[in-house]
Structure formats: structure tokens, C-alpha cells
TrEMBL record:
Domain of life: Bacteria
Signal among keywords: yes
Domain Peptidase M15A C-terminal residue range list: 205-288
Coiled-coil annotated spans: none
SUPFAM superfamilies according to UniProt: Hedgehog/DD-peptidase
Protein name in the entry: Peptidase M15A C-terminal domain-containing protein
Keywords attached to this entry: Signal
InterPro entries according to UniProt: Peptidase_M15A_C, Zn_M74/Hedgehog-like
Secretion signal span: 1-32
Pfam families hit by this protein: Peptidase_M15_3
The keyword Signal is assigned to this record: yes
Length: 355
């Protein structure tokens, strides 16, 4: 059975609609203990009991979606590959929602089954030292339905003199300088990037190395990321493809920036890149590291960045996108680079344009 564009749209819409029920606004402290949008047990029961038709996908090889969605603390992930960023010994709640009918699932850590807390829920604890772990959710037939690359972060208190293992991070702005402390939250930890782990997938189409700060340094490097950014990038990529705008390669021109590097390039002090939820991006299917001619007018200009911006505008109208709202900047070309857009998930709308 072939999976048509319409079928993909149905799967995407049904799964994405779950996000609106459980994803927090990123204007809140994402590092705080998770707080559910649906408050109280009665409300949670009502939300879970909402009638729906299970999505039965026979030819799953053609989709990046898992056959269920996974609630990870305060976000919902529909993809068959994703990542967790946790501190040593941190406990994370993993709950399967919208499972396939009459199917059971098990969580495995490095091939060892993890005991459930409830029928579709696990409270999984990270190891006590920084590094990588791998989780898999398998159905009873042994099929792997979702893989999670777990990054146990180095706690931020180990930064000494603005450095982690000789990697220059620099100081974050003092709290006294911050007006909206819920939006500008310092990292609690940093992902250690090595030559061995940099190729690991964070989501179906993006790898760890793509978000690392561009400052010159050997390994290890360190990066801070928020899962909301990954969800936003995957959603934008899918929306463009659904609207017949081919995206086989979306380039992360700039992801995380350390405060030191952000200052060195003369960027604003409170850049969202410093807070791990921003990316400067463009579509580059032909591999020349420049924006493609997305509007098919025979030239590459800011109008091609506008094509991407319009997709963000469309997503902003949808309830399932509420937790991913943030900044959108449109940039025209310069001699050393092509046009691009900036996106982030700060939790409030911000718009700017620089020809």
C-alpha cells in the first residue's frame, strides 16, 4: 500500500493536535518541574478519554512518524527518532499516548527492559554521570517503534572561569539585567559534543553537530538545546513539503552560540541563540550552501526567505503550534552568504526584517 500525501497529512494533523493539549508555552521556565496545561486529575481523564480514531499505518517505512505519540514531561513527540537532554540521575516521565489498538509496548535501555510505572508510562532515571544512553520503545513483536538518543548533560555548576574542560562558554547575563526571567533562563547543563557522538540524531532530520557553536575549538565542545526548537524545525520542514516546496536539506546556519562567541560576533546580548532555542536556517537542496530559489523566479533573494516565513505564518494560526510560537526574522543576502530566516521558541511573537 502506498502512503499518499493526503495520508501523510492526516497522520501529521492527528498527531500534531495532541501537542496543543500538553505542550507548555515556552515563555515558562522549561527547566522547571513540568506543569501540565490540563490541570487536575478530572481534566486529565477527560482529555485522555476524548474520542478518536486510531491511525493505522501499514507502510510505516515511508513516514518519519512512530505509530504512537510519546509525551516526554511537557512535550509530545510523534517522530520515530528524538532526543532527551537530562541531568545526571534526573527522572523523566515517558507516556505513550494514542497507541495503536490492541498493542502493547515496552521501553528498553541499552537492550534491557525498563519496568513500567503504569500500563503506558515509565519513570526513567538517567545514569549518574554525563554521557549518552539509548532508549527504544518496542512493540510486543520486537519491532522498534521509537528510538531516543539520551544526552546526560554536564551540570552548569561545573563551568569554572567561563570554561568547561577548556571550552570557552563565557558568562551569561546577570539576573539583575533580565526583565523577563521566565523567557531568559540560563542552562542547567550542557551537552558534551565529541567526535564520536556528533553524528547522533536529535530528530528525524537533524544531528547534534548541526547545532554546535561555530567558535573555533577542539573537542570536546558543549552545546545547550531545547526540544521545542527541534519540534519547530521538523514541523516547518514538513509543512513546506506538504505545500509542494521541496525540502530535502534544511541547513542550520547557526544554532547554539556560547555567550563568548555571541559577544565576539557582535550579536545582541540577549540573543535567543544563547538560550538554546534559536536557529538561522535556509533550504539548500543542491548543496551549494546558499538558499535555493524557492519561489521559482529565477533568482535567489529575500523573497525566497519570505517563502519560508509564510509557512511559519500559516503554522502560527494552528492550535497545535501554540507552544512553539516565538521569533521570526527574515534576512536578505550578503556577499558572503545567501538569504535565510531566524526562528526561535521564546513563547511570544517577535518579528523583524533585514533586507
Amino acid at each position: 500500500m502506498m502512503v499518499t500525501k493526503d495520508m501523510k497529512m492526516i497522520v501529521s494533523t492527528l498527531k500534531a493536535s495532541v501537542v496543543a493539549l500538553v505542550m507548555l508555552s515556552t515563555a515558562q521556565n522549561v527547566n522547571a518541574k513540568p506543569v501540565e496545561m490540563v490541570q487536575g486529575k478530572a481534566s486529565q481523564t477527560a482529555a485522555r478519554a476524548a474520542p478518536h480514531e486510531p491511525v493505522v499505518v501499514e507502510n510505516k517505512a515511508h513516514l518519519e512518524d512512530a505509530e504512537f505519540s510519546l509525551k516526554i514531561d511537557n512535550i509530545v513527540v510523534p517522530y520515530n527518532a528524538f532526543s532527551l537532554f537530562v541531568l545526571p540521575e534526573e527522572v523523566t516521565e515517558l507516556e505513550i499516548i494514542y497507541p495503536q489498538p490492541d498493542k502493547t509496548y515496552q521501553l528498553f535501555e541499552n537492550g534491557v527492559m525498563v519496568e513500567k510505572s503504569e500500563s503506558m508510562t515509565w519513570h526513567w532515571q538517567a545514569k549518574d554521570v554525563p554521557g549518552e544512553q539509548r532508549l527504544e520503545i518496542r512493540s510486543e513483536d520486537g519491532q522498534v517503534n521509537m528510538s531516543l538518543n539520551v544526552f546526560v548533560m554536564v551540570p552548569a555548576e561545573e563551568v569554572q572561569g567561563g570554561r568547561l574542560k577548556y571550552y570557552h562558554i563565557g558568562p551569561y547575563p546577570d539576573e539583575s539585567e533580565i526583565k523577563n526571567k521566565d523567557v531568559y533562563v540560563e542552562p542547567e547543563g550542557f551537552i558534551e559534543v565529541t567526535e564520536e557522538n556528533q553524528e547522533l540524531l536529535l530528530s528525524p532530520h537533524f544531528k547534534l553537530k548541526e547545532f554546535t557553536s561555530k567558535q573555533r575549538s577542539g573537542y570536546p565542545k558543549f552545546v545547550y538545546l531545547r526540544p521545542s526548537l527541534l519540534l519547530k524545525l521538523e514541523m516547518l520542514r514538513r509543512e513546506m513539503n506538504m505545500n509542494s516546496i521541496n525540502v530535502s536539506n534544511m541547513v542550520i546556519m547557526s544554532g547554539y552560540r556560547t555567550p563568548q562567541y555571541n559577544k565576539a560576533i557582535g550579536n545582541v546580548k540577549f540573543s535567543r541563540h544563547v538560550y538554546g532555542d534559536a536557529a538561522d536556517i535556509f533550504v539548500d537542496n543542491d548543496g551549494n550552501y546558499r538558499m535555493d530559489d524557492l519561489n521559482k523566479d529565477g533568482a535567489v533573494s529575500i523573497k525566497d526567505a519570505d517563502v519560508m516565513a509564510r509557512m511559519i505564518a500559516e503554522l502560527n494560526k494552528r492550535s497545535e503550534y501554540k507552544g512553539l510560537i516565538g521569533g521570526l526574522g527574515v534576512y536578505g543576502p550578503k556577499p558572503h552568504r545567501g538569504p535565510f530566516i531566524h526562528v526561535d521558541t521564546r513563547g511570544i511573537k517577535a518579528r523583524w526584517r533585514k533586507p
